[in-house]
């Protein structure tokens, strides 16, 4: 007789997805919900990208590309970065969305037992992947305005700290960090020789002024971008990573033994994405941002988000899980803050939804807030 053993590896106990699972269990019982939980744009892939991908399939571009990504796509990405930053000559790795980039970057640079500083609230994947590789997430509270402060980042640094993660525009808060915010955070990393992983997958979704990137500030930035949100290609699984050559090479080697390469015909389609004009869509999202913020600000304590397509109000009564359960009972699907945070005081709304859905959601949420006496 062999000892009964778990079917799963020990590392799986490092991942706890119970928060989001509870929400989806509740949501499964909803009929035709007012769904304000979706983290992807509600428009479709630009036609030129579709046409190019279909043509690529027909012409037989259906085999593996090289691990680092199709040469044409990498050239287009490099040219685009050069246009944006004035200068760019580093290696480019085409990744499986920015998610692929996050995993490869962590695996390539962070040792078990190392600490990674994560501003809180944070994109869910960071916490779980840091735990998965046996490292430790160290959360730095950014409430109430969701800007990581340099003194708090500094206080979180220990001899085991390896990396700071920055995400602007931020999921779940919609906060956009200014060039000064970024410079202050990067100064902490520089002082201690830390890496910075900058997740800029919402770089196109900025509504008040220009987007500021972390890339020009420091030579130890791993920059992750994505085609997913900007071009509504979440299912195409394409993003890219750039950074110190040694790190990009190590990530490429890991990709060779994991993801292998991005989908070949879709890489062909993505190569014309930068030529498409997204201004009208971004303006449409800006108007929806205004609509949700103006609709909620009288009854909710809420920061005006500058980007992405999320807003992160405080839950009336201070308990987000309880408030979200009430919202779900009233047919509105939103996500409690404890899915994205060590606190459970706020909730995430995605306004990547029709104006009609947003309007219905605002009406129900205000009614619930009124009942809470807010
Ligand atoms: C902050 C952030 N980073 C990364 C991702 C992953 O997106 P993808 O892998 O599709 O690029 C998401 C998706 O929601 C996100 O919100």
Explain what the structure shows.
39% of the residues lie in helices and 13% in strands. α4 runs parallel beside α5 and α4 crosses α8. Strands 2-8-7-6-5-3-4 form a 7-stranded mixed beta sheet, with helices on both faces. α7 links the parallel β5 and β6. By secondary structure, the protein is of the alpha/beta class. The model has no long low-confidence stretch (mean pLDDT 95). The chain folds into 2 domains: 127 residues, Aspartate Aminotransferase, domain 1 (Alpha-Beta Complex); 229 residues, Type I PLP-dependent aspartate aminotransferase-like (Major domain) (Aspartate Aminotransferase, domain 2, 3-Layer(aba) Sandwich), CATH 3.40.640.10. It binds pyridoxal-5'-phosphate (PLP).
Cα gyration radius (Å)? 21 Å
Bound molecules: pyridoxal-5'-phosphate
**CATH topology term of the largest domain:** Aspartate Aminotransferase, domain 2
Give the count of helical stretches.
12
Main sheet specs? 7 strands, mixed
Strand order across the largest sheet? 2-8-7-6-5-3-4
| Tally of DSSP β-strands | 12
SSE sequence, one letter per element? HEHHEHEHEHEHEEEHHHEHEEEH
Beta strand %: 5-15%
Name the overall outline. globular
The CATH superfamily of the largest domain is: Type I PLP-dependent aspartate aminotransferase-like (Major domain)
What is the level-2 CATH architecture name of the largest domain?
3-Layer(aba) Sandwich
Q: What is the domain tally?
A: 2
* Sheet/helix structural class: alpha/beta
Give the integer mean of the pLDDT values: 95
Straight-line N-to-C gap:
62 Å
